[in-house]
Amino acid sequence: MAPPNAAPEDAAALKVALRDELAALRDEGARGLGGVAHARRVAAVYDRALGALWSRVTSRKTRGRVSLLAVGGYGRGTLGVGSDVDLVLLHDGRDPRAAHALAESLLYPLWDASVAVGHAVHSADDFVALAREDLRTG
Asked: Do 96 and 64 meet the contact criterion of CB atoms below 8 Å apart?
């Protein structure tokens, strides 16, 4: 079943846009663009794509109650062309089911666009508790 707010054409357009932008970056990398500069440009491609998708799948009801966090290499703003995009959806704890539904609305178009996504959904309190046990959580 398709998640709400995630029309099939979104995934198709996302896949084409990412394919084209990442192909251009591969060409730049082959011409000698430095590694860190290249990785920052790749992260910026995903920033634009995820920002547009996030705007589409969130609503007035969820804004301010759920945040999207980039973690790992993506969170550091450096990503390889074939790297996983690691995300955490952090919610206020009031409606975990809505947060998970929102996560699906975000993730399905990414998966359909062949993006490798590592993801988790946590309340802020749970995330802080996890981070106290293992700093690698975030």
From this structure: no
